[in-house]
Design goal:
Length: about 150
């Protein structure tokens, strides 16, 4: 199990996604949150708990006017700790316009390679799955080749 504490500014959101083999349990510590799980909306505040079963489509956002915080338990942990670290690296490198939306060609290449590498733990639902299946393998291959050339 991996336990993570998330702090998010007002308006912050995590786009719709699912974890094929991972259950997430959220305990709200501060702020006002909106969760959508399998199409069902739910508001949550301090003290509320929410379970997202493996395979459930979900997204969430800090809808309050203050910084929000929650603890997420992720089970099994798989490689989610590395997933979070690398996704933060991509964000710091300005590869996204907003969460889940790559910025420019280099962002699309990096995001495709990242998404393909972590597809056993996390599947984003944008772009639509058929588009991902067609484009991500090719873009990921281009990104891996680009990285190899940069190292050489």
């Amino acid at each position: 199990m991996l336990q993570n504490e998330l702090t998010a500014d007002p308006g912050s959101e995590v786009p719709e996604h699912f974890h094929p083999h991972i259950e997430e349990r959220f305990e709200i510590l501060e702020g006002e949150w909106s969760f959508r799980v399998n199409g069902e909306e739910r508001r949550a505040g301090p003290g509320d708990r929410l379970v997202v079963p493996a395979g459930a489509r979900h997204k969430f956002a800090n809808v309050g006017l203050k910084v929000g915080r929650f603890i997420a338990e992720i089970e099994p942990a798989m490689d989610m700790e590395r997933f979070f670290a690398e996704s933060a690296e991509l964000a710091r490198a300005s590869m996204f316009r907003r969460p889940g939306v790559p910025k420019g060609l280099s962002g699309a290449l990096a995001a495709s390679e990242f998404a393909e590498r972590y597809s056993d733990t996390t599947v984003m639902l944008f772009p639509p799955r058929p588009v991902q299946r067609l484009t991500f393998p090719l873009l990921a291959r281009i990104e891996r080749r680009r990285r190899r050339k940069a190292r050489a």
